[in-house]
# Entry
Amino acid sequence: AQSVTQPDIHITVSEGASLELRCNYSYGATPYLFWYVQSPGQGLQLLLKYFSGDTLVQGIKGFEAEFKRSQSSFNLRKPSVHWSDAAEYFCAVGGNEKLTFGTGTRLTIIP
Amino acid sequence: SAVISQKPSRDICQRGTSLTIQCQVDSQVTMMFWYRQQPGQSLTLIATANQGSEATYESGFVIDKFPISRPNLTFSTLTVSNMSPEDSSIYLCSVPSKLITDTQYFGPGTRLTVL
# Structure
């Protein structure tokens, strides 16, 4: 069975600081991995995805994520956060047939 | 990406009543998915709705509680029946992307509060 773990429930960073959100997955085959962002009162927006190939993937809004098979990880990074990045971030594994989500990480930005 | 709308965006309902949530997509899609996001929790897949066939429900979800209709390739409804406060959640529909394989796009969600 596929599963996703996001070990950090809540992270607070200063505006302009770097960010890394952790995601570990369990999947029987080569995983399809996704990061979604949910802003307050909004639906989910796809930030980026990994299917195969280059293990460092670039997404929207300046985000990137690195797939590390040996660590079963797909951590999300951003070199300098903006106040508008405050949101809930979900890592997911799967594909068209079924997506399994992690429990999410709430990101708070302080001035 | 597909443009997905949901109605209502939010509602407050009394226990024992039922609410039907609509999901409209701006293009034809074979599969549509319904998810539940309980307060402070992640998203859980309720069921997959294919046009022309019965919806496929995930473990823990049953048709009597969450009946789904899929009358055409751009529309689906999810009904939350005989509601209790435990049904208070955000309900989201999603569709597969036609351009990006194995990717889903989500509607804005329906925030349901049951008193």
Remarks:
- The first strand of chain B starts at residue 4 and ends at 7.
